[in-house]
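INTERNAL AUDIT FORM
Audit reference: QA-55
Scope: verify that the stored structure record matches its stored sequence.
Auditor: D.O.
Record contents follow.
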Amino acid sequence: MNDRNGCGCIKIRTPRAEDIPGIRRVVADCAPYLTNYAEYLYFRDLHCNGQTTCVAELGGEVVGWCSIFPAPALAPGRFFLHQIGTASRARHHGIAEELFFYLLPKLAGLKVLQFTIDRKNTAAQKLFHRIAVRAGLRLLKTPGVIPLLEGDSDDELYVMTPDEADGSEVAQFEPPYEGWRRHDGERKRRSISNRISETERTRDTRGPGD
């Protein structure tokens, strides 16, 4: 990933055990919105879910981290995004968005992706609205705040799902904020535009006898 905004050459890859101290530094830099767990828990994440975790590396240093857990016990095709964040010195270059899209093709059979956002964390809210538009996914949230989370957390549970997913999967969710209809309209227009472009490319590649 060559950053066009001057941050340098950023590499996104599957993490290794030796990345754990760097991962924890990134998480600590994202306080109070991410919780910095013990090294053992990050080792467990890499060992058990290594293919759905990734880091961003800049100059040999870990500057971004994303972890997503498969949750097949809840339902087939269900995933939970646990943490996503970038170091303060590497922000505003689209790294968090690229971390997500590095993992998206690895979410086999995706029907529902859940995650939480603190309602005070407007940067994360904007990030996931951009992701939803770019990926052509629906983004909704549950009403109310999740109870029993640590500290002064004010987290709300969100869900992201493909358009073709069973509507019953998200029937209990409501739009996250007033601007949702504008974002949803943009996402739908982009999805339609992509489908039209694909049709035109198909036509262009067909020979006269096709």
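Auditor finding: record pair retrieved intact. Residues 165-184, 195-210 have pLDDT under 50 and may be disordered.
Action required: none
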